[in-house]
Amino acid sequence: MTTPPTSGPERLRADRGLRAKTILNSYAPLFWFRHPLERHPRFGYLQIAHLGWRFAEPHDEFMPIFEAAARDAPRHVDWEFKGMRNWLILPTRLTEEKRRNGDNFIHAQATVREDQEYCLAAARDMELILRRLAAASPNPGLLGGVTA
User: Fold this and answer.
1) How far is the C-alpha of 46 from the C-alpha of 2, rounded, in Å?
2) How many domains does the chain have?
3) At the top level of its lineage, which domain of life is listed (predicted)?
């Protein structure tokens, strides 16, 4: 597996998880949040970008915003929003791999992660998704200057 560079124009912001959490909290308080580290802490390869969260209280009124962000913001790979108990924004390829791997999410992540160029494209799209979500925040004052 070839790992893309971490400097120059390909450099990814290391604080994306914190920014994502802040942006989602600007919609409503979070009960649960998941976002992978951008790079594996030991081996340095890119992880596959995705978001998972649950608000402390149901907020179905925000579903159209998240659906639009997943559908309209990305430019490199296809994404989807899933509004279930936990809400997810993830690359469609990750969902397809999960299905192929007997609904094993960890195995699906490992399979997709082998394609580092795809992971880089997904990371770029995640930045666009976060920008869209920050711009649409119903409580921009809670962003505290955080922009994606």
Assistant:
1) 10
2) 1
3) Bacteria
